[in-house]
Amino acid sequence: MHIPDGFLDVKVWAPLAVISGAAVAYSAKKISTSNDEMRVPLTGISAAFVFAAQMLNFPVAGGTSGHFMGAFLVGTLLGPFSAIIVLSSVLIVQCFLFQDGGFTALGANIFNMGLMGILPLLFIKTVKSQSVGSKISINTVGLFIGAWASIVFASIACSIELWLSGAIGLKQVLIAMVGIHSLIGIGEALVTVTVIKAIAHARIDLLNMEKI
User: Fold this and answer.
1) Do residues 69 and 188 lie in contact, with contact meaning Cβ atoms separated by under 8 Å?
2) What Cα–Cα distance (Å) separates residue 205 from each residue in 57, 109, 136?
3) Cα 63–chain centre separation
4) 25: domain CATH number?
5) Considering the domain boundaries, does residue 5 fall inside one?
6) pTM surpassing 0.85?
7) Could you list the residue range(s) of the whole structural domain that residue 17 is in?
8) For 42-65, what is each residue's pLDDT tens digit?
9) Among 167, 195, 162, which Cα is nearest to 1's?
């Protein structure tokens, strides 16, 4: 889903660069006003985890492969603003050091994998606080659906951008992109559920962090 240079028309990538830049700046401002001392190191650890996880591809179907995205996972743990910063940092490093995703398409890639990746958080309650002590209830179904949807939403946004750029017909790109990423989303969901449950077992207090 890392769009390279030359695939998007300027009328598509330029506005997305502005939108993504504004989202990153606003997210950084929101995080800087947080009084949570654990947020900065956990954001760094999350970025390192997402970067490493994205380097590992898994086979999907027909010779294609997918990789973990991580926006929904980080958003669940640290909140949407931290997720945007983490995904943006990872994508910037991948773009400039590994040529994974084009420079002109960087704003679009951040929009797709960062902003669209956290969109399911608006609809799905994944971690519910309980009234007794620090115990929490993990909504496994919500986690699974949210993580899966984050991949599908990102693929839909990418498909529309390619169509608006005249690279391919809308029907063809939606069938190809959404079809394969619906399968990739299953892998994303499994990793997300596994990591959240492991954190809940080892450090349940981290799931009670104040989200901003």
Assistant:
1) yes
2) 31, 32, 9
3) 24
4) 1.10.1760.20
5) no
6) yes
7) 10-208
8) 889 999 999 998 887 777 665 556
9) 162
